[in-house]
Amino acid sequence: MSETPSNAPDTPAASNFVRDLVRADNEQGTFGGRVQTRFPPEPNGYLHIGHAKAICVDFGIAEEFGGLCKLRFDDTNPVTEETEYVDAIVDDVRWLGFEPGEPVYASDYFETLYQWAEHLIATGFAYVDDQDAETISAQRGGYGRPGVESPFRDRSVEENLALFRAMRSGDLPDGSHVLRAKADMQHENMQLRDPIMYRIRHEHHHRTGDQWVLYPTYDWAHGQSDAIEGVTHSLCSLEFDSHRALYDWYLEHCPLPGDQPRQTEFARLELTYTITSKRKLRQLIDDGVVDGWDDPRLPTLRALRRRGYPATAIRSFCDFIGVAKTNSRHQIEMLEWFIRNELNRTALRRMAVLRPIKLVVTNWPAGHVEMVELVNNPENPDDGVREVPFTGEVWIEDDDFKAEPPPKYFRLTPGREVRLRGAYYVQCTGFSNDADGNVTEVHCTYDPDTRGGNAPDGRKVKATIHWVSTAHAVPIEAALYERLFAAEVPGERTGDPIDDLRPNSKTVLAGKAEAALGDVAPGQVVQFERLGYFARDGERAGLFHRTVGLKDDWANAQKRTK
RNA sequence: UCCGGGGUCGUUCAAUGGUAGGACGGCAGGUUUUGGUCCUGCAUAUAGGGGUUCGAGCCCUCUCCCCGGAACCA
Predict the structure, then answer these.
(1) Residue A384: left (phi > 0), alpha (psi -120 to 50), or beta?
(2) Closest Cα partner for A368 from A392, A340, A394?
(3) Rounded to an integer, what distance in angstroms lies between the CA atom of residue A562 and that of residue A560?
(4) Nucleotide nearest to A463 (CA to C1')
(5) β-strand A506-513 against A474-481: which pairing, if any?
(6) Which nucleotide has its C1' atom closest to residue A334's CA?
(7) Is the CB of A320 under 7 A from strand B?
């Protein structure tokens, strides 16, 4: 994975500040030349595209410097966490193309953490507070306002130890006591105003069961877990910047087995027209706006996988956008370009008509069937060719005929000649329509000399359209997806992204396709010629999800003139 | 209000005191049996004011703007 992604734009490896920093550490021998990172999700939901960047950075940096990256579950809060998510996350990381090995857990270190907490008590750097959450919060003060020290702050070591052990015993109710670090109630950084290390929660933990009622907070668990594992570079997102001082403070007060790890923050990945808030994602599912965590309109890795986004393309994208400290939001078009770029090279071409109208070749010999040859992928000759039956009656896309063509329309219209891909030139002689004026049938004549789609006299046509013989067509269903949100930054207007939901983000069409589409493997992505890339559903044969459309200058131009 | 982090083409990422560059997007053209791909070209940026320097996007200083921070969440 350390090689340059094959479909990334051909530019020199972009420098980024994290890479520079790790390299500098190596040159100075800061960690004895060792590089170790970790990807630390909380198992309380599914991974999304934002996590993909973190995974690429965490695993990528380790790989690049010959180091190690572990998948660590930050499972310090039993009320939100479940084994189901653990399994899904491992699966998603692997799908992305990284080997998580045997995952580790913050809960593996509960006993060590506990011992170190007693060490802090013994050295005078932690105390048990009997006050409730509200009181503690109020005493914390505010920005530019002083904090108030807890009346329990100066308990003796003996009393603290006894109380802390009682907390562990399970005899004390939730919320009755917490363990706090004795740091600095006047610190300008609120994180240092005697933060909570332990709270009592009589809850079942997905791994440790009922063994503990004492659960460490994130800040107390994270850096210590890093140190226990031998992490050198603890990479996280920008919002933890203000936690770094506390991260260091804890580390300096613990009897570490080795080097003190260092936290570095970088900007998380945000995309236009997309949300990644777990809470809001869940709401979309609960409200029935989407069908589930793997609904292809969602940015979860499961959804993107189902939609046909290749993991390699996602990785290339993540590698390409780099790592910085600027809060930013990448355009989704950039991601889509990476998806198309990869699929263009790899996806087999097939013909499918999604909004069929009938085209009748009036001079075609009745009942005659002819096999025509089509290339499977013009970008890759190794994919070979296939034969497709052509007859005098085919389905074509209703978009490809206009009784009254707009300016610069190249496709079928009365009198116009076009090419049916791989078959013949046909010229439109007329059409019929129903009472409402809808076109029901297009009439053409074909030129027998143009078999294969070439005119011996050298005359050109401006359009080539796809088709499917009506007698040989297999029915398919195609799910078309639009962006879930109509706004670049969902929720920017009102504060709630739900207000920016686009009404019809999913359309299912009953189409007609060539027989080869019956052979597409679950999850495989093919290109429906001129329409886009489509992924075969994981379960249902005949159901295809549109991964992404083809770039369509004609449609874009039409949209603009409207 | 206090502390911290940021501010470079429309967007995003580079340029580490020495020619402001790439990608996506846009526009124009060429090739093409996908209005796809590919190729060529064009346009657009250092938030503002002072300073240091032969030379500043980069260093100093003042101002402005954006983001984060006062869970027993992570």
Answers:
(1) left
(2) A392
(3) 5
(4) B35
(5) antiparallel
(6) B24
(7) yes
β-pairing verdict for A393-397 and A468-469: antiparallel
Q: What are the residue ranges of helices labelled H in A230-367?
A: 244-252, 278-286, 301-307, 311-321, 332-346
Q: Is A421 a catalytic residue?
A: no
pLDDT, block means (10 residues), chain A with 562 residues: 39 76 93 96 97 98 96 96 95 97 97 98 98 97 95 98 98 97 97 98 97 98 98 97 97 97 97 96 95 97 98 97 95 98 98 98 97 97 97 97 94 97 98 92 97 94 97 98 96 93 96 95 98 97 97 89 71
Residue with structure tokens 């080097």?
A259
Is the distance from CB of A175 to CB of A214 less than 8 angstroms? no
Contacts of A145 (CB under 8 A, 6+ apart): none
**What is the sign, positive or negative, of the torsion defined by CA atoms of A214, A218, A219, A224?**
positive
User: What SS3 state is found at A478?
Assistant: strand
- Of A201, A268, A280, A402, which one is the catalytic site residue? A268
Domain A278-348+476-560 fold = Ribosomal Protein L25; Chain P (2.40.240)
Token duo for residue A129: 């507070």
In A10-92 the beta strands, taken as DSSP E runs, fall at: 36-39, 68-73
pTM attached to this predicted model: 0.95
Token pair of A457, please?
């006299």
For A249, the token pair is 């403070």
Q: Determine if residue A101 is left, alpha or beta; phi over 0 gives left, psi from -120 to 50 gives alpha, anything else beta.
A: left
For residue A298, what are the CA distances in angstroms to A13, A373, A546?
A: 31, 38, 13
Q: What is the CATH number of domain A34-271?
A: 3.40.50.620
Amino acid A387: pLDDT: 97
Q: Name residue A198's beta-bridge partners.
A: A179, A216
What's the pLDDT at A13? Answer: 54
The architecture CATH gives domain A352-466 = Beta Barrel (2.40)
A146: number of Cβ within 10 Å:
12
Can you tell me the distance from the alpha carbon of A49 to that of A463, in angstroms, rounded to the nearest whole number? 38
> Could you tell me the sign of the dihedral formed by the alpha carbons of A177, A227, A245, A184, in that order?
positive
DSSP annotation of A336: H
Q: Which of A278, A309, A317 is nearest to A92 (CA)?
A: A309
Instruction: Please state whether strand B lies within 7 Å of residue A529 at its CB atom.
Output: yes
Say yes or no: Cβ of A111 under 7 A from any atom of strand B: no
Same fold, A34-271 and A352-466: no
User: In chain B, which nucleotides are within 7 Å of a protein Cβ?
Assistant: 1-8, 10-16, 22-27, 33-38, 66-74
So where are chain A's domains? 34-271, 278-348+476-560, 352-466
Measure CA A340 to chain center.
16
